[in-house]
Amino acid sequence: MEISNKSQPTVEDTVLVDFRSSVTDTDLNRFIADTLQPTEEFNREMQKTVGQICDFLREHMKPNKIVKGGSLGKGTAIRGKSDIDLVLILNEVRNAEDLEEKLPAIKEEIVKKLRRNSTQLSIVHESISGDQSRFSVKFSAEGSHDNIDVDLLPTFHFEDLKRLYSTMKTDKDHDAYYSAALVEQQVEFVKSYPANVKSLIRLVKHWRKKMVVPYEAKRKLPNSYVMELITIHLWEKHVGNDGTFNTLKAFHSVMEELKNWKSLKIIWTKNYPRCEVPDDIRTKSGPLLMDPANPMNNLGSTFVWDEIEDAAKKVLGSRMMSGVS
Question: CATH topology for 40-182?
Answer without folding.
Answer: Beta Polymerase; domain 2 (3.30.460)
